Every structure is written in C-alpha cells, then in structure tokens.
C-alpha cells in the first residue's frame, strides 16, 4: 500500500515504515504528524482525489529535525570589482510513516 501526499509544496510518494525527508514540519522528535492532503491511495485498487481524497490521511512520527548541506551562492560582476558570497542550509524533517488510511 502506498500513497502520494502533498507537503511543503511538493508531492511525495510514501510507503508504510519508510523514512522520508520533507521540508521542515513544526514539532519535536517523537511527535505524531497527520497529513490530510492525500492525492492518491493505492492498495488493491487505486483511489485518486480531485484534488484530495476526503477522508484519507497519513500518520507519521518525527525522527529528526536537521539542516541540509551548505549551498554556496557566489555572484560575480565582471569589470565592476564586485562579488558577493552567500551560504544557505535548508531545514528539513525526517519522518517515519506509520499508517495510511483511505476511509
């Protein structure tokens, strides 16, 4: 059984007992998170929402809150003696999917 959920402006395919990394979700380690924006659930038959499935939900547990690797943004303007160096670390949440319900 798998489902496709929407979180952080992205669509993610999830399976039971699968760890996933998503945009930061508020909460502490060990907290339960429920996603109600379920686009598709597939078991023996596939149910597709329009755009979401009304009573479907996906339950997950927060395993880790973290920040990704540093990305360096370097802007250089030739012949102007101008440059700018910036760094960014995107926050993420590691979730473990516990339950997918379609009804």
Overview of the molecule:
With 103 residues, this protein is an all-beta fold. It is 0% helix and 63% strand. The chain is built from no helices and 10 strands. The protein has a 4-stranded antiparallel beta sheet, with no helix packed on it. Strand 8 and strand 9 form a beta hairpin. It is elongated, with a radius of gyration of 19 Å. It starts with a strand and ends with a strand. 13% of the residues are buried. The mean pLDDT is 95.
Number of helices: 0
Q: Biggest β-sheet: count, sense, barrel?
A: 4 strands, antiparallel
Q: How does the overall form come out from the CA principal axes?
A: elongated
Overall mean pLDDT stands at 95
Q: Can you list the strand order of the major beta sheet? A: 2-1-5-6
Concise overview:
The chain has strands at 2-7, 10-15, 19-23, 32-35, 38-42, 46-48, 57-67, 71-77, 82-88, 91-101.
From the structure above, extract its key features.
elongated, 10 strands, four-stranded antiparallel sheet, 63% strand
Outline the secondary-structure elements.
Blueprint (H helix, E strand, L loop, with lengths): L1 E6 L2 E6 L3 E5 L8 E4 L2 E5 L3 E3 L8 E11 L3 E7 L4 E7 L2 E11 L2
Antiparallel strand pairs: 1-2, 1-5, 3-10, 4-7, 5-6, 7-10, 8-9
């Amino acid at each position: 059984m798998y489902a496709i959920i929407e979180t952080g402006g992205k669509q993610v395919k999830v399976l039971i007992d699968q760890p996933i990394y998503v945009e930061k979700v508020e909460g502490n380690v060990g907290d339960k998170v429920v996603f109600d924006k379920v686009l598709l659930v597939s078991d023996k038959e596939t149910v597709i929402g329009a755009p979401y499935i009304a009573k479907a939900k996906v339950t997950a547990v927060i395993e880790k809150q973290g920040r990704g690797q540093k990305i360096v943004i370097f802007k250089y303007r030739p012949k102007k003696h101008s440059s700018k160096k910036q760094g960014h670390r995107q926050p993420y949440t590691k979730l473990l999917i516990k339950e997918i319900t379609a009804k």
